[in-house]
Write a structure and sequence with these properties.
This protein has 285 residues and is an alpha/beta fold. It has 10 helices and 8 strands. The two termini are 13 Å apart. The model has no long low-confidence stretch (mean pLDDT 98). Bound molecules: L-Erythrulose (LER) and manganese (II) ion (MN). The site of manganese (II) ion (MN) has 5 residues, from loops.
């Protein structure tokens, strides 16, 4: 397995100013970083960042969202669904320039935008169409897709692993799977570990987020992080274990993830303790 850290703790757009953070993550022992590709307007930027990460010696994955209603895979408006495809095409180009191995995140609906109703078959079919179109493009760029079910307070289309597995089946592309996030599973699954095992047995786990129940330092809360690691090792999982935590450094991100207070004294605690927890638990398992 490989241990990663998501840069969303600091920013939605990684620039020169974040290079000291990237170096610190490398020095801690991380294999790679998860880079937000939220701004997909300048693909050359990600080529520059790839060079920086190569020099430091960090592999990478990319995380994307759908930015607004005009780029929404479950919109009733065909033009908006086409907008989602066009946005994801640009994201794939940026991610390829970045040298990303995977494209992860909830790129099926706009975060925090609800109809007030449960997901419909039409919304599911619309999302499948969008994902069927982009999965081969990602494959051609050597990028694996990992779609992320989110808790009910952030999204309504995919909340559970079961819904995620059904969506993967409906997309029907071997390059398209699910991101299992311990934070979301803690909220939505009756038994997060049983859900993980079922998802894994369906061949659908292509990425993992290690995230505490409050989004703080892994190991200091009650999400089943140790059990998740032990289970994944027993199953033979060989992919990314990427830590995700959120603070209040970026107001838009804090608002989107509903972070209204501090969960840790500083980012160093999150990335040093989190790394040690994963490494120690994996070794001992
Ligand atoms: C959001 O809740 C989350 O878990 C992220 O990985 C997606 O942006
Ligand atoms: Mn996540």
């Amino acid at each position: 397995m490989k241990i990663g850290f998501n840069l969303l703790l600091w920013t939605g757009h990684v620039t020169e100013t974040h290079v000291p953070i990237l170096r610190a993550l490398k020095a801690t022992g991380y294999d790679g970083v998860e880079i937000p590709v939220f701004d997909a307007s300048d693909s050359a930027h990600y080529r520059w960042l790839a060079g920086v990460l190569d020099d430091i010696g960090l592999q990478r994955t990319a995380v994307a969202i759908l930015p607004d209603e005009e780029h929404n895979a479950i919109s009733p408006d065909a033009a908006h669904r086409k907008g989602a495809v066009e946005h994801l095409k640009r994201v794939i180009e940026c991610s390829q320039n970045l040298g990303a191995q995977s494209l992860v995140g909830p790129y099926y609906q706009v975060l925090g935008q609800f109809t007030g109703e449960p997901p419909t078959d039409t919304e599911r079919a619309h999302a499948s169409e969008v994902h069927r179109e982009i999965a081969p493009l990602a494959k051609a760029a050597n990028i694996v897709c990992a779609l992320e079910p989110l808790n009910r307070f952030e999204a309504h289309l995919l909340n559970t692993c079961e819904q995620g597995a059904a969506h993967v089946k409906s997309v029907g592309d071997p390059n398209f799977g699910i991101l299992y996030d311990t934070f979301h599973a803690n909220i939505e699954e009756k038994d997060p570990i049983a859900a993980l095992k079922t998802l894994y047995a369906a061949g659908a786990v292509t990425h993992v987020h290690i995230s505490e129940n409050d989004r703080g330092t892994p190991g200091r809360g009650h999400a089943k992080i140790r059990e998740t690691l032990i289970t994944l090792k027993a199953l033979g999982y060989d992919g990314w274990l990427t830590i995700e935590a959120f603070g209040r450094a970026v107001p838009e991100l804090a608002a989107a993830t509903r972070v209204w207070r501090d969960f840790f004294p500083n980012p160093e605690e999150v990335y040093t303790e989190g790394f040690k927890l994963i490494q120690d638990t994996w070794r001992a398992a």
